[in-house]
């Protein structure tokens, strides 16, 4: 066992990279749940975004086009959930699980011809002077643009929910859709837009895994990140900045256990690999008794005829 081989600066920098796909998916799902919709299909939308973004990047040679395509793929795939829950009024939990299973199967089919291919790399955003600072530079100013977009998206969602009329309407729909409808708001339309936003964010998170974190395509490569993102929304009490901190916590646990494996720590690899999920379960158990922050209409379908 050689813990001296673990570089703290690289560890923290890697933590931020590992946290980004979780953060992107969680912020999108947070907006969806603020609108009163529970979409358990995050994992499915992420894996569709992963293969969609990977394929477009390989075919065009442009990672930027790949990320745009991944967001589009996630948003379009989320329309299946819209069709089931907002049009057919199906159960949201069952529909979300079906979306995940379908996404995993479809991505495996679409990705068969991309196994073993390395995609073009997205360059890092080098900031003059700041990137050259010791310790702070590599940690904060030597990352890819999508990582900073994830942080900016968190700030934007926080400001939108807290200070804008759009955020007020979104929260009203999530708290009491009947009252929002009585005030003249288009509840179904608002929820559809929220679901598509969540799908786009999940698609971006999936593409981040296949294009930056692990630049290759592997079947099922999201490996439960979507489920951690769902747990993270609860952990954050539906608050964007807490979601950011939670993503860094879960990402940190993932990076630490990988470094401990590489250092040869005398703990079975299986225990280390399952540690992020164990922490997720523990956090959920601790916070499950506090539902005061959850939108009151979460998981309930809206019936316009009522």
Automatic annotation (TrEMBL):
<dbReference type="GO" id="GO:0005886">
    <property type="term" value="C:plasma membrane"/>
</dbReference>
<feature type="transmembrane region" description="Helical">
    <location>
        <begin position="245"/>
        <end position="265"/>
    </location>
</feature>
<dbReference type="GO" id="GO:0022857">
    <property type="term" value="F:transmembrane transporter activity"/>
</dbReference>
<keyword id="KW-0472">Membrane</keyword>
<feature type="transmembrane region" description="Helical">
    <location>
        <begin position="271"/>
        <end position="289"/>
    </location>
</feature>
<feature type="transmembrane region" description="Helical">
    <location>
        <begin position="220"/>
        <end position="238"/>
    </location>
</feature>
<feature type="transmembrane region" description="Helical">
    <location>
        <begin position="192"/>
        <end position="214"/>
    </location>
</feature>
<dbReference type="Pfam" id="PF02653">
    <property type="entry name" value="BPD_transp_2"/>
</dbReference>
<feature type="transmembrane region" description="Helical">
    <location>
        <begin position="64"/>
        <end position="84"/>
    </location>
</feature>
<feature type="transmembrane region" description="Helical">
    <location>
        <begin position="96"/>
        <end position="115"/>
    </location>
</feature>
<feature type="transmembrane region" description="Helical">
    <location>
        <begin position="37"/>
        <end position="58"/>
    </location>
</feature>
<protein>
    <submittedName>
        <fullName>ABC transporter permease</fullName>
    </submittedName>
</protein>
<dbReference type="InterPro" id="IPR001851">
    <property type="entry name" value="ABC_transp_permease"/>
</dbReference>
<feature type="transmembrane region" description="Helical">
    <location>
        <begin position="135"/>
        <end position="161"/>
    </location>
</feature>
<keyword id="KW-1003">Cell membrane</keyword>
<keyword id="KW-0812">Transmembrane</keyword>
<feature type="transmembrane region" description="Helical">
    <location>
        <begin position="6"/>
        <end position="25"/>
    </location>
</feature>
<keyword id="KW-1133">Transmembrane helix</keyword>
